[in-house]
Amino acid sequence: xxxxxxxxxxxxxxxxxxxxxxxxxxxxxxxxxxxxxxxxxxxxxxxxxxxxxxxxxxxxxxxxxxxxxxxxxxxxxxxxxxxxxxxxxxxxxxxxxxxxxxxxxxxxxxxxxxxxxxxxxxxxxxxxxxxxxxxxxxxxxxxxxxxxxxxxxxxxxxxxxxxxxxxxxxxxxxxxxxxxxxxxxxxxxxxxxxxxxxxxxxxxxxxxxxxxxxxxxxxxxxxxxxxxxxxxxxxxxxxxxxxxxxxxxxxxxxxxxxxxxxxxxxxxxxxxxxxxxxxxxxxxxxxxxxxxxxxxxxxxxxxxxxxxxxxxxxxxxxxxxxxxxxxxxxxxxx
Length: 334
What we know:
The structure is a single chain. The protein is mostly beta strands. The chain has two domains: 6-166, Sandwich (Jelly Rolls); 171-319, Jelly Rolls (Sandwich). It has one helix and 21 strands. The protein has one helix at 317-329, and strands spanning 21-25, 49-50, 53-54, 59-60, 70-88, 99-105, 120-127, 133-137, 143-152, 156-157, 159-166, 178-179, 188-192, 216-217, 227-245, 256-262, 269-276, 282-286, 292-301, 305-306, 308-315. Strands 12, 13, 15, 16, 17, 18, 19 and 21 form an eight-stranded antiparallel beta sheet that branches. Strands 1, 5, 6, 7, 8, 9 and 11 form a seven-stranded antiparallel beta sheet that branches. The mean pLDDT is 94. Keywords: Hydrolase, Purine metabolism. It is an enzyme of class 3 (hydrolase).
């Protein structure tokens, strides 16, 4: 089995759980377009028939009897730079498309699907096989807000994954009140001690965790150590409020936690000293110390799970400048 590319560890910018949605498809006769961006891996139950035939966990169009192709347009929940695309035909064996292509566009505001224009190719027309994941590298370094999947000529696709790096629009940022640790603002997880049950990237995802599986959870420790996560913040800033959310973690929440900050490659210093936590609780703490930070480290003692980490603060002038330059560097050629 071929190992998945490294970019699959990057966030899925199109996923429903980060705000993505399938805003239009020219046909969905057999299975709904919305399935394309579901977070869960596709499933299949044989001999499960509805009014449209066998129920598929994916998007499936009718059998085309005239020239053409089928299309689905996805609004990215996290606009950003796309590093790779996965077209997953799981469980589509006799009804998968023989070819697919992916295009992208970038717009401001909230246009209707019919108003989207200027599509650029990310993945040229490429052959597909049934019941497998197809990984396509993307070399274009620009920021996108929407992608369009085209299947040639028809058939079914279970999931479309659009992996990349979120890039926030500085016009939509309030410099004095910003979650410096938020994925949607450009923060990223750089290291962690353990992710046996859940990815540390979930800690900085948008919205509230709906179930325990949408948080970060480690294996049970049998030594004297503790688990931790390190995060590169969206831009240099000063943290004023820390939120440590153990929602859904009841018998497996950490007993205590601390948050430290850092500048560059220098020493860590306390933002929130070791503090007792409660299960299934959103904890909010004032941060009275630290000054400017560019990175943060969450330590949990000794192990367990946490739903979300929020570090609300203000950008420094240098931080706002860095965030603005990042945006300009991936939009100026569009």
